[in-house]
Every structure is written in C-alpha cells, then in structure tokens.
Amino acid sequence: MAIEAGSLHGFTTSSFTHGGKTRDVFRGGSGPGVVVIHELPGITPKVAEFGRRVIDAGFTVAMPSLVGTPGKEMSLPYVAQSTTSVCISREFSTWAVNRTSPIIEWLRALARDLDAQTGGKGVGAIGMCFSGGFALAMAVDDEMIAPVCSQPSLPFPVGRARARDIGLSPSDLERVRERAAAGQCVIGLRFTHDRAVPEVRFQRLRDELGDRFIAIEIDSSPGNPHGNPKLAHSVLTEHLVDEAGHPTGEAMTRVIAFLQEQLISR
User: Fold this and answer.
1) Residue 75, domain CATH
2) Are 94 and 65 spatial neighbours (Cβ–Cβ below 8 Å)?
3) Is there a domain that residue 55 lies in?
4) pLDDT in tens, 82-138
5) pLDDT at 180 over 90
6) Which of 56, 192, 194, 230 is buried most, with the most CB atoms less than 10 Å from its CB?
7) Does residue 8 sit within a domain?
8) What is the pLDDT of residue 90?
C-alpha cells in the first residue's frame, strides 16, 4: 500500500490479519485501546491529527487503513475515487438495509487483539462517515465498551428505509439492544443539516437504545450562530473548529471524556 507519511508522525506501521485479509494498521500511544476508523477518503492528515488527540488523552490507538492512501490530503477527486472503491467493494454494505457490513468481522477481531494487548479491560472505537456505524456494530462484543459513531452515513440514505437504517443485521441489533439495556452507552454525532446523516437515523437509534444513546447534534442551519456551513459533515476532523465555546470543540471534548469515563475511570 502506498503511504504519504508526512502527516503520520507519532504512529508506527504494522499489519493485522484476520479471515485471510491483511491490512495496514497505524499504532501509537499507551494506555487503554481505541480503534480509530477513518472516514472517506482515507486516513487524511485531519484523521491522523484526531488520532494523536486520542493518544494524547492517554490511549493506545490502532488506526486501520480500509481505503485510500494513508496520509494523503483531502480533495474532492480523492473523495470521489475512494467513494467509488467503497461502493464496488463487497466488504461495505453501502445500500443494503438490515445488514452488517462484512468488514465488521475484521474490525471486531482487531478490537479483540487490541484489548488483549492493552490489558483486557475493554476498548473503544470511533467510526466516522462511511465507518460511523461500524463502532455500533462492534459493540456486539463485550470488549467494546466505548463506541462512538460520528456522522454514520451507511447505508447511503436514499429512500425512507435506508434513511432510517443503522447498518445492523437483526441479530446484531438484538445483541446491541441487550447491551444497552444492561447499561452500555453509545455516542452519536452529526450536523443537523447533513443530508448523509438524516435526523430519522438518529431517531431510530433513540428508539432502539433509549437513553443509552447520547446524541450530539450540532446546528448547521442557514445563519447558525457558529458559522457552521450547511454542508458540514465531519464533526471531529474537517469541520472541527478548535476554539473555546464552539460546539464542535465541545463535541470533541465530550468524546474524549466519554473514552476516559468508560476506559480509564471505571
């Protein structure tokens, strides 16, 4: 795999194999484990910067590369290229409803391996964009105790059924419900006018998980007081405004606090 390494300082490159699939994984830090799953188009400099924030907060980060060129800058042609790769891959359920993406089995295995390496007390996962719902699907396993779903965009919300779908098979959904009933919390983040993450999808998560679903919804309506663009999508990376009092900065702080509450303080 090609790598543009300049923005990946602080990480070492390794590989992980499960089910006959081997992928590059960028690792760094110490402490409890967190799987950081990149958005489209790949591990951009902003995604790597977010990974370093998690490391600095006291965690071991494992950041797998699922698509794209690690370290490459965001651009519209690059997004289009990576989106096409995701759409034609059988590993990602981009259109099907009531289905868990096949890639999840590999990610669950990576999380279990990270858990074993970092003490076996549980790990977290943060998905973004096309991978946003992956953290929820990984919460089937007991080891996953801090799932964060940032702008979960799959399946692509074309039509009412897909707009409400949360990317889980019926059996996986039942297991996630059971864990929520037993006290497991899940954080979800979205901009209010993000067409890729419609409000009905978050409402479905509320319906399924009750008050164990912690929704962080950031105003991106026209003329909103914080100047968030109407097309804002990436809460923790491209559209993060790291300033005191800005809702995206507060969302970042809440995510880090959630990881610390679940993985360090308990």
Assistant:
1) 3.40.50.1820
2) no
3) yes
4) 999 998 888 998 888 999 999 999 999 999 999 999 998 999 999 999 999 999 999
5) yes
6) 194
7) no
8) 87
